[in-house]
Design a protein that fits this description.
It is globular and about 65 Å long. Strands 1-2-5-6-7-8-9-10 form an eight-stranded antiparallel beta sheet, covered by helices on one side. Strands 3-4 form a two-stranded antiparallel ribbon. It has one domain. It is of the alpha+beta class and 161 residues long.
Length: 161
């Protein structure tokens, strides 16, 4: 009887762990939001009419979660960074990797960049973060490190937790 209970407990634990997010990466933002953690989410989101399995970026000192949907287009890779506070996109191509305002066609999905939440000075600093070499590599850790600097009012974000 003890063996059956033990086996049932192990199977239950394995089932629960299979539904958890899968850890990808971690690091520090050098902002008041603290360290970040990147995981792959099991819940799909719809962006531009396509289903995406997003990355979820969570921060140590706040309850803010950011979802990143990645699309591959002709000659570039777009990272749609979506949150309740500030949504925008990063573009990686052969020439540069940098931030942009969200495309107009995303407004039909309910996503748009809020000018009030955006730190304009930091936005222009992040227009070109790196050169285009190795542009196909995953840039999600760079997004996690630089995204908090784009928030205009980090005190409101920190008050969420």
């Amino acid at each position: 009887m003890k063996r059956i209970i033990l086996i049932a407990g192990l199977i239950f634990a394995l089932c629960l762990s299979s539904y958890a997010r899968k850890f990808v990466s971690g690091g520090t933002t050098h902002t008041p939001l603290g360290k970040y953690k990147i995981e792959v989410d099991d819940n799909y989101i719809k962006v531009n009419g396509l289903q995406h399995r997003p990355y979820v970026i969570s921060f140590e000192n706040t309850g803010l979660e950011v979802r990143v949907a990645v699309t591959m287009e002709k000659g570039c890779r777009k990272y749609y960074v979506l949150s309740d506070n500030l949504s925008l996109q990063y573009v990686s191509n052969r020439h540069y990797f940098g931030v942009e305002l969200l495309d107009k066609e995303l407004e039909k999905d309910g996503f748009r960049t809020s000018d009030q939440a955006l730190n304009r000075a930091e936005y222009f600093h992040q227009k070109a973060l790196t050169t285009g070499e190795r542009w196909r590599r995953d840039k999600t850790p760079l997004i996690a490190a630089f995204y908090p600097k784009l928030l205009n009012n980090t005190e409101n974000v920190l008050a969420v937790k």
